[in-house]
Amino acid sequence: MRSFLFVPGDSQRKFESAKKTAADALILDLEDSIAPDEKVGARRTVREMLDTRMPGQKMYVRVNALDTGMTLGDLAAVMPGRPDGIVLPKCAGAADVNRLSLYLDAFEAAAEIEHGSTRIVTVATETARAVLKLLDFENMSPRLWGMMWGAEDLAASLGASRNRTEGRFHGPFLLARDLCLISAAAAGVVAIDTIATDINDLDALREESIAARQDGFLAKAVIHPKHVDVVNAAFMPTDEEIAWSEKVVKAFNDNPTSGVVKIDGKMIDKPHLRAAEKILALRGR
């Protein structure tokens, strides 16, 4: 998957618009986009959204954080709708993932959903404590499928007056981004890039998305339907990358006992082969 489009859980209008996009997944939001006195009603709306999903489009639900006292109520309302996954905000390491996984065990059993089929995606950098816990995923539940980084809540946690200047993230936020990417790779799960907040600057979005993919992120969160096509295109390998990768794979196939091959005057070794194979795997997205 390349694009995760956030949809306010209380807006059927925005949901109908989101369904028409090419977003690989929708994140139906019960957290930040919902006013406190609207959260209970939003649960019912999200349940209705799950019942009217588009075939082939994944549906995730972002529940309220574990320390709010609302997580279980959120899950009770939405799990009968069989979401593909749950997005856990303010996640601080394996303990939070495993706690949510236990909740899902129970709700899957109650709704007669296949055990373990509901994925978990964490928003893993929203607090200073969460950033310090990024490496704490050694014994996490196998439900964990992806780790997303975010900069907006982290700014509040750090007491920062801003997180970027002229579209460029400041140092603490780049550190959180890079740690999330590295931690996801170490855990063997998908790294998901954060949203672009400037809705109208599609050139900046394209540049940011390409940079994220080149660094190793496999998907990006978006907050507006017109961002979806830009992100989807950016998270596909270019024709040049595919051609080079095919050349690398062919060279090693032609020399199966060699650990190093020469291509266009350059020495290419097995790490290049693994990188080429990953690029070619992305071609079928």
UniProtKB/TrEMBL annotation:
Transmembrane segments: none annotated. Substrate binds at R62, E126. Keywords: Lyase, Magnesium, Metal-binding. GO terms for biological process: oxaloacetate metabolic process. InterPro entries: Aldolase/citrate-lyase_domain, Citrate_lyase_beta/mcl1/mcl2, Pyrv/PenolPyrv_kinase-like_dom, Pyrv_kinase-like_dom_sf. Its cofactor is Mg(2+). Residues 2-225 form the HpcH/HpaI aldolase/citrate lyase domain. It comes from the Bacteria. It holds the Pfam family HpcH_HpaI. Mg(2+) binds at E126, D153. GO terms for molecular function: lyase activity; magnesium ion binding. Belongs to the HpcH/HpaI aldolase family. This is Citrate lyase. The lineage of its organism: Bacteria, Pseudomonadati, Pseudomonadota, Alphaproteobacteria, Hyphomicrobiales.
